[in-house]
Amino acid sequence: MALSDYVSTFGQHLLKKHGERVHKLAINAGFTCPNRDGSKGRGGCTFCNNSSFSPNAREPDPVAGQIEAGRQVLAKRTGAKKFLAYFQAYTNTYDDPANLKQLYDAALAEPDVIGLSIGTRPDCVPPRVLDLLADYRDQGYEIWLELGLQSAFDHTLERVNRGHGFAEYREALQAAHARELPVCAHLIAGLPGEDAAHLQLSLQRVLELGVEGLKLHPLHVVKGTMLANEWRRGDYAPLTVEEYIRMAADLVEATPSEVLYHRLTGTASTDILLTPYWCNWKWRVLNGIEDELSRRGTSQGYLGAQEGFL
Hints:
With 310 residues, this protein is of the alpha/beta class. The protein is 41% helix and 16% strand. The protein has a single domain (3-309), classed as TIM Barrel, CATH 3.20.20. Helix 7 packs parallel to helix 9 and helix 9 (241-254) packs across helix 10 (282-296). It is globular. Its cofactor is [4Fe-4S] cluster.
């Protein structure tokens, strides 16, 4: 058995759709965020590392160069031949649409890049940007809009200085769906002041609105963040690996099988990770989720199936 026997994974979906494995190539296009530059706030999210915004930080390489470097590594390691350009770092729609088009076009011009996955905030997807993404979709590219919600609770979003609320997520989702763009919502387990019940309710609110994909990962405490200061003061305690595995399994059970899990855990760079150290045990965590679902005799959509049976 494998995790994909219990969970509807994005990787398996792409394999079936495109006839071979499709790998993501992460891109840093040098964007910032509106809660850093003053348009929404200052300082950024409490869990977000500030090093990339240092005046001495190195400018990222051109998009084409990043894709070529990543492609060579993945091709050697996995034999990959098809790729999604994943604009990952910070808010990847936070620019003039004309500039965004140049960056996105540069990625799609690279050999074997079959589409885009765009990570952004719910308050940074104006109509012109959504129209641009819909145009790529109409050209036959695989297009995903990844919205960083993290929590459906406004008091939590305020506590971690997100600079937006659940209403902005709802509006962005509806605008994307009006253009038939698939959305992947990001949720974080272990946010300050939240427990397993909060995470379940966040999932429920996301599912009620409709979503095509989900990403889940534990909250990392990394150097150079306000959260790191909270942790050092004893004001924040991270999840244990056992707690996270149970919470992830709970979410999988409550998620309809047609919703794709793009990610079920997340790692952090070892040079900045403070805690929890197990965050970088990727396969132990994924195997733990698989084992927990196997132990329970459940899989994705189990709770909905039970309700339907009753």
